[in-house]
Design a protein that fits this description.
This protein is an alpha/beta fold and 423 residues long. The protein is built from twelve helices and 20 strands. The radius of gyration is 22 Å and the shape is globular.
Length: 423
């Protein structure tokens, strides 16, 4: 069954582990947007893998992993990731990794301008400074360098010169910085291009005759970082939502049947922007420590808050989700009280519809009791503590979407299935 999986919060929902679990039933795993500003983490046999560009399905044999046309690729990061996997004994070849020739390339000037723009801004975005936004900007401005150009020496040279002709004066005049010399950039990246070249192909043509296979599409970041649907301007530069899976992959002929949303049992956010249920003090410290809430890409501590069901319900609607997966339920286990946001208020009035902006929004909570029990080794929903089941059943009823899987620990096997009407 062809499936798309997306995050329903502000990213970091544990999608990497879920993708790793679901790809056992998939033949082809496709990343369709974002860049190395995202990190998917999988822990297996006490070994930790952090994926920034390559789908985590690469850990499984006889799978094809795809970097679709909507992804922006930093070739240095990609090659480092391939090398790390190979050293860990994971096979990465042109047979199990395919990269779209339409992907845009992140160049060194993208990373520099990303950092300089953030320094200049009064309203900080909280960018990872990986060059993602400026690369997408060049894509829309029609001056980007695509993978097909990158692996062609003549085309790459022409487009690089054209870009430096425009960008070097900007670096000097707007930021007081030196520009880039063509030869030093070209000579370095020409070598990188030759290493990447074996993986590059026309994704549409390659997979058109493989429509009988099971496709799994993985999104990076989360719904409220979507360039359109998110908490703009504190968002990423690509479309994160499920409807972009086919366009961003370059596989519009695939028929999607299952749309899975992943959410934590609480809420986190990295970077700037409004966060109605945000916590501080001892509970924040507890969630960060117990949940390992530090960015897989940047190492930044994540902001943490109570579960926001108003936000989740909106994300389910935006993505047309028909299956829900909850992660990090185990992290809440030792708390005496757990809160869940059921409504918003602004200026002391209940907000009836989902607000245009989350600025100055205050949450209205329902309180649950915690459960003092390690649940990481539990394999059946019925064996969970009653208070944990009450928490999940309430969530399911409020959201009107079935919870299919629940992650109860860090390891890839610490996950259990919840059947319909199971209590």
């Amino acid at each position: 069954m062809n499936t798309v999986l997306v995050g329903l919060q502000w990213g970091d929902e544990g999608k990497g582990k879920i993708i790793d679990y679901l790809c056992r039933d998939a033949d082809i795993i496709v990343r369709f947007q974002g860049g190395n500003n995202a990190g998917h983490t999988v822990i297996t046999n006490q070994k930790k893998f952090v994926f920034h560009l390559i789908p985590s399905g690469i850990l499984h044999k006889n799978k094809i992993c795809v970097i679709g046309q909507g992804v922006v690729v930093d070739p240095e990061v990609l090659l480092d990731e391939i090398e790390i996997l190979k050293k860990a004994g994971i096979s990465v070849t042109s047979k199990n990794l395919k990269i779209s020739n339409f992907c845009h390339i992140i160049m060194p000037y993208h990373r520099i301008i990303d950092s300089l723009r953030e320094q200049k801004r009064v309203q900080k975005i909280g960018t990872t400074k990986r060059g993602i936004g400026p690369c997408y900007k060049d894509r829309v401005s029609r001056c980007g360098i695509r993978m097909g150009d990158f692996i062609n020496k003549d085309s790459f040279a022409f487009k690089l010169k054209d870009n430096l002709r425009e960008k070097n004066p900007i670096f000097k005049d707007a930021y007081g910085q030196k520009g880039f010399k063509f030869n030093s950039v070209y000579n370095k990246y020409k070598k990188l291009a030759q290493k990447v070249k074996p993986f590059v192909c026309d994704i549409t043509d390659y997979f058109y005759k493989k429509q009988d296979k099971n496709f799994l599409f993985e999104g990076a970041q989360g719904t409220f970082l979507d360039i359109d649907a998110g908490t703009y301007p504190f968002v990423t530069s690509s479309s994160v939502v499920a409807s972009n899976a086919l366009l961003g992959s370059g596989l519009p002929f695939i028929n999607l049947k299952k749309r899975i949303g992943v959410a934590k049992a609480y809420t986190t956010r990295v970077g700037e922007g409004p966060f109605p249920t945000e916590l501080s003090g001892k509970i924040l410290d507890y969630l960060q420590e117990e949940g390992g809430e530090f960015g897989a890409t940047t190492g930044r501590p994540r902001r943490c808050g109570w579960l926001d069901l108003v936000l989740l319900k909106r994300a389910i609607k935006i993505n047309n989700i028909n299956t829900l997966i909850i992660t990090k339920l185990d992290v809440l286990g030792n708390l005496d009280k757990i809160k869940v946001c059921l409504k918003y208020k602004k200026n002391k009035k209940i907000v009836k519809n989902f607000p245009y902006s989350l600025e100055n929004i205050k949450p209205i909570y329902k309180e649950f009791k915690g459960w003092e029990k390690d649940i990481s080794k539990i394999k059946s929903f019925t064996k969970l503590p009653k208070k944990a089941k009450d928490y999940l059943n309430f969530m399911e009823k409020y959201l009107e979407v079935s919870i299919n899987f629940i992650s109860v620990g860090k390891d890839r096997e610490e996950i259990l299935k919840k059947r319909r009407r199971e209590s």
